[in-house]
Amino acid sequence: MGELLTPTHLILVLVVALLVFGPRKLPELGKGLGEGLKGFKEGIMGKPEPTTKQDAAVTATKNEPIQPS
After folding, report:
1. DSSP annotation of 27
2. What are φ and ψ of residue 57, in 5° steps?
3. How many alpha carbons lie under 13 Å from residue 5 in its C-beta half-sphere?
4. I need a labelling partner for 2 at 20 to 30 A (CA). Which of 30, 45, 63, 68 fits?
5. How far is CA 2 from CA 34, 40, 43, 58, in A?
6. pLDDT in tens, 8-59
C-alpha cells in the first residue's frame, strides 16, 4: 500500500469534488470546513470564542458591571 496523500491523489480528489459540487459551491464548502475546524480546535483548546457579532455583543454586555442611572 503506497502513500495516501500523493499529489496525484489530491488532484484526483479535487477534480471529483469540482465535478460533484460545481465551481460555485466549492468556496462555500471550503469556508464552512475551515470554520468547523477552527471551532473544533478552539473547543479542544478550551477557548470559548463568540462566533457571531451578536454573540460577541452579548458576551461583552455580560462582563460589564451594571451602572446605576
Report:
1. H
2. -65, -40
3. 0
4. 30
5. 28, 30, 34, 51
6. 998 998 899 889 988 888 889 889 989 999 999 988 888 655 556 665 565 5
Q: Which pLDDT score is estimated for 31?
A: 93
Tracing cell 460577541 back to the chain, one arrives at: 56
3-state secondary structure (DSSP) of residue 60: helix
Cβ atoms of 40 and 47 within 8 Å: the answer is no
- DSSP designation for 66: P
Instruction: Cell numbers for 69, please give them.
Output: 442611572
Q: What phi and psi, each to the nearest 5 degrees, are found at residue 19?
A: -70, -35
Nearest to 51 by CA among 62, 64, 35: 35
